[in-house]
Amino acid sequence: MKRPMETYHGDTFFQDDTLMYVNRNVENFTGSYHNHDFLEIAYIAEGEGFHHLENSVQRVRKGQMFYIPLGMPHVFRPTAANGKPLIVNNCIFSVQLLPKLIAFASGSETAAFLERMEDGSLGYHAIMDRHDRFERLFGSLYEQNAMPGSGSAIYLHTLLLQLIIEFNRAIEHSQPMTSEPQHHSFHDVLQYVEGQYMQELTLTQLAQISGFSERHLQRLFRRYTGQSWHHYLQTVRIRMSRELLRTTPDKISTIAEKVGYKDMHSFHSVFKRNTGLTPGQYRSDVQHPE
């Protein structure tokens, strides 16, 4: 028996000339099984559940991301009506937006990937967010869509292009890093640090995971980041602490712990060396600019 299906139209969602829309949806059992006349990238932000497709049902969980092409019927469902909610971030965009992105990326591998989106040859894909990069991108997309300002359309298109580039890379490198020694690219090492900076990371651990020797890793950090391994880790942690100071009401001691510092004196010392301000001064400056 064929199940009832709706068709969602982009005109219902798109605002002004952006030709795209971003939302955060708590899935339920009443949402319609549907297809749509736009392209969609969906990210599981919280919980777990099921993704019902035309000929299959896939179990889904936090950190998974999906590319859903034009006209493909689907719907997300939670595991139970009274269980933990399934929250999905959606970025939908018109095929008409792709020529603009293709022109910007002209001559690159990204342009070829966008052309496959445009002509419909890129089919459904599901990947895992290994280092929370997509979670951060969706956060920026949602914020910009919800609180538009000067240049918002360009900003949104730039974030969408970044999302698509990262998605293409994730498809190309679909095997996650494991505890078994393997020769990954240094880019994978940097992504791993971006996702695990709050842990007690050591150069020895990175060497075991990546397959590079500790000495070679030190050389790579110097060559590609201009910093030693230790200073690079501190830079990432302080960057993330600045974001938390700007966007959350958390206590400074809580933020220090969240980004990997167990000693407040060390956190204050490194923060001031990196920014010229104490964490308290930094928060005050961004919340009460002159």
TrEMBL record:
The keyword Transcription applies. It comes from the Bacteria. The keyword Metal-binding does not apply. GO terms for molecular function: DNA-binding transcription factor activity; sequence-specific DNA binding. PROSITE patterns: HTH_ARAC_FAMILY_1, HTH_ARAC_FAMILY_2. Pfam families: AraC_binding (PF02311), HTH_18 (PF12833). Transmembrane segments: none annotated. Residues 187-285 form the HTH araC/xylS-type domain. InterPro entries: AraC-bd, Homeodomain-like_sf, HTH-like, HTH_AraC, HTH_AraC-typ_CS, RmlC-like_jellyroll, Tscrpt_reg_AraC-type_HTH. Keywords: DNA-binding, Transcription, Transcription regulation. This is AraC family transcriptional regulator.
